[in-house]
Known about the structure:
single chain; alpha+beta; Outer Surface Protein A, domain 3; 2 domains; three-stranded antiparallel beta sheet; 2 helices; elongated
Amino acid sequence: MSRIGKLPIELPKGVSVTVEKGNYVTVKGPKGEIKQQINPDMTIEVNDTEVVLTRPSEQKRHKALHGLSRALLNNMVEGVSEGYKIEMEMVGVGYRAASKGNVLEMSVGYSHDIHFQFPEEVQIEAKQEKRGNPMLTITSPDKQLIGQVAAKIRSLRPPEPYKGKGIKFVGEHIRRKAGKSASV
């Protein structure tokens, strides 16, 4: 049996899970609502305080789907109860960002500003400290969506290995390369 798949998912207070035909799962909580389809082969049992997933057979495919389905459902429950947060840092001279509505305006060393439109489920807060690098704080109840948005923002100016300039995650280590050295 799958070590991850067999674990029950504890439901915090204020979180409700409903399963519709075709394994369409809706999770509602204080941070929002997430809908997703879990593989129809899996059986989802919702009790008052926990959710249990079972698989129909011991096939390798079902074993893999068992753990995956449980992890996806657990991420949904955790997202609507606590939410997810990703922090990013913009390293470079003249780099700045401002969030206006659903558009993030960034100046990251190109000849033009970049206007990045993000989904309504995601909130982006841009902070500029006096003598520090601009910081982006991305929050959302959907773990997949927040990761996708953060990766897209990072791809607009990935960190380069010589000076370390670019948009990076807080805590991310950039492998630095030595530049040209003068010959003696």
